[in-house]
Amino acid sequence: MLAALGQWLNDKISALLYASGYLLKVLIATVTFPRRRQVGNRVLVLQILFTGVEAMGIITLIALAIGAVIIIQGVSLLPQFGQGQLIYTILIAVIVRELGPILTAFIVTARSGTAIATELGGMVVTHQIEAYVSVGINPISYLAVPRFLGVTLSMMVLTVYFIVVGLFGAFFLTQLIKPIPLSEYFGNLFSALRFVDILSSLVKSFVFGVLISLVSTYQGFNVRQASTEVPQRVIKAVGQGVVLCIVANAIVSLIYYI
Amino acid sequence: MKELIRLKNVTVQSEDYEILRDISLSFAQSRSTVILGPAGCGKSTLLKVAAGIIMPDRGSVFIDGENLLTMPERDLKAFRRRNGFAFQDAALWANQSLYENLFIPLRFHNPRLKKSEIHDRVMQSLESTGMDSQAHLRPAQISSGEQKIVSFCRALILEPEVLYMDEPTLSIDARVLGIIYDLIRRYKQKGCTLLVVTHDQDLTSWLADDLIVLKAGEVVEMGPFDEVKNSENQEVQSILSSVLSRAASYDTDILGLLAKEQMQD
User: Fold this and answer.
1) Residues B136-155: what's their mean pLDDT?
2) Which of A116, B31, B138, B153 has the fewest Cβ atoms nearer than 10 Å?
3) Whole-model pTM?
């Protein structure tokens, strides 16, 4: 039993060191990416298109719904306690600081994280990665870095988009329940909004983008021999991505309140 | 003969067993070497180690005397530029068109070349093999034989000095076989270094200058083609007869006869 425990610990440490080495390689390749006249620019553009632009529809829907739910609950409950003005603080705390980044991260994980892990895993199994190596193209520079940059950038833009649509969605719902002028709504909202709220949101979205892209590409590249491993790695990518984003969210929120 | 590639005490480990075990050999420049052996003996792995695609778990690979594992990135890129690798299963990039499969490596190694020049070279390569009308298609939209042709085109697009071929004539029809034979013959006549894994007795007989016989991850015999073919080692004869099965049914030297016929063509 002791031997099994030792082996388990050894395997976990090896995996952690391997992942750390991969992270370092990606970061180094990212720094050198702009000065390389690579064909990776096209991959970056396509990744931004898929992760960012094509996700806007679903982000719009979810952001509008979240904004609507918060405003309905807030407008009906808060006046009972004489705290109607708190709705703006709650909108900022919930949409800008918390749900905006984390829900966007979940959507990006579900769409892009799975797609990236699946695509790269399939490429490993069919020797396409070896083909890149054979012609001298570094798979990390050409395949991982554009996805890393594309997902991170798209996460940040999508988070801002989520927040804007969520807050606008909340405004449109208030017109049905308790109409207020646009200027009054946004005036109260901006007076409740602070710079650190925006900063917190951007930091979270950046960190989530980094985590999702690193985990997805890492799991994709780690497919070994059989195509049956691909869905297993995809599930790992999603699971690890979600857990890491939730943990990172808690850490950043904690720092925000310190 | 100048030594181009040297493997020294190379071992490649799988999770359960050693795919290649303490292999030391060399490949000479401008020679054509055929690697033979039963299925699963490590032939493809040996080829990929020699091409620098797979790094050994133990041992070293030397290219022109320089250790591949410690080679600076610039030298490594130059080494890759001199190579062409045709994979057993083509390994074309599935999310790119046939045109892009050739465009990408050419563009990568020639960033200053005009796009129109790259376009011309790509189309010329596809036209020479009759694949130009399908340049816009994805690999999944063409047959496996045609994928093999395009894989060869990609391997040759940089006009390599060293060509690695893993089972180039496996599972293809006579038309595709003729195209691939022409391509290989052309590069042999140019004096390129050719490393081939194959079970094709016709190809072996007219192509091989040197022969390497592998079994269970170890080199059983290696040397000039005639010497290995006529080896008194029973194990070598057994492997050759089982791998090159048609040869076993003749009393006369079938490989020698086939070699003479090809040279006369």
Assistant:
1) 94
2) B138
3) 0.88
Q: Where are the beta strands (DSSP E) in B47-204?
A: 58-63, 66-67, 83-86, 162-166, 193-197
In tens, the pLDDT along A125-156 reads: 999 999 999 999 999 999 999 999 999 999 99
Strand partners, B200: none
DSSP letter (8 states) at residue B96: S
Q: Give the residue numbers in B contacting A (CB under 8 Å), as ranges.
A: 48, 51-54, 76-77, 80-81, 83, 85, 87, 89, 91-95, 104-105, 107-109, 111, 154, 158, 164
Q: For residue B265, what pLDDT is reported?
A: 53
Comparing CA positions, the residue from B202, B208, B93 lying closest to residue B139 is: B93
Long-range contacts of residues A2-10, Cβ cutoff 8 Å, at least 24 apart: none
Instruction: Please give, rounded to a whole number of angstroms, the shortest distance from the CA of B173 to a CA of chain A.
Output: 22
Question: DSSP per residue over B35-59, as a string?
Answer: EE-STTSSHHHHHHHHTTSS--SEE
Contact B166, B51 (CB under 8 A): no
Cα A124 from Cα A17, distance rounded (Å): 21
Amino acid at B2: K
Report d(CA A212, CA A114) in Å as an integer: 10
Question: Cβ atoms within 10 A of the Cβ of B112, count?
Answer: 5
Number of domains forming the structure of chain A = 1
Domain hosting residue A63, numbered range:
2-257
Tens-place pLDDT, residues A187-224: 988 899 999 999 999 999 999 999 999 999 999 999 98
